[in-house]
Amino acid sequence: LKTNFSQIFGIIIGLLGAIIIVTKDNLFAFGAMNVYALYIILATVCYAININQVNKFLRTLRGIEIAALSFLFIGPAGGAILLMNDYSQAIISETMLFDLMCIIILGLFASAIAVIIINIIILAEGVMFASSVTYIIPVFAIMWGVLDGENINLIQIIATIIIFLGVYLTKKNNYTLK
Fold first, then answer.
1. Which candidate, 17, 19, 102, 154, has a CA 20 to 30 Å from the CA of 33?
2. Cα 10 from Cα 168, distance rounded (Å)
3. What is the 3-state secondary structure (H, E, C) of the chain?
4. Nearest to 143 by CA among 20, 17, 12, 21
5. What distance in Å separates the CA atoms of residue 132 and residue 138, rounded to the nearest whole number?
6. CA–CA distance, 128 with 8 (Å, rounded to integer)
7. What is the pTM assigned to this prediction?
8. Per-residue pLDDT reduced to its tens digit, 72-85
9. Contact, 18 vs 158, CB < 8 A?
């Protein structure tokens, strides 16, 4: 794919912002890194692979069709996993209905709708912009943490601004590199 300087610079800036978020409070001490944040980075890499595959092989499909196709493939595996687990403790829990509702909401809003939206972005705005949008995943992880009572610090705010700047630069049109 043809890219321009602004897009490449935007991807690098977005990655820098994601790295800053992952390193927690100390930018230069990777030992202080929240290791669970690596799952978010892994998710971002998987989104990047997905975006390129969708662009290459599924360009003629609509976003909702691509989402339905992907859930068709993961459905049997998910169903098998569900059938192999023991839910006796969960069923007798006093918070079982609330917990189940939270899982359903998370599945619908964080997975199904997100997959549809990212596929629409791929088809409408292009692969480069869609891949830069995945840098926002760590920002949402921080927001979930804040909702769970965690504090947000100045470094995380600056990293979030850097990520949004990277996404903006990726969308901005400049001269094409050859």
1. 102
2. 7
3. CCCEHHHHHHHHHHHHHHHHHHCCCCCCCHHHCCCCHHHHHHHHHHHHHHHHHHHHHCCCCCHHHHHHHHHHHHHHHHHHHHHCCCCHHHHCCCCHHHHHHHHHHHHHHHHHHHHHHHHHHHHHHCHHHHHHHHHHHHHHHHHHHHHCCCCCCHHHHHHHHHHHHHHHHHHCCCCECC
4. 21
5. 12
6. 9
7. 0.60
8. 888 899 889 988 98
9. no
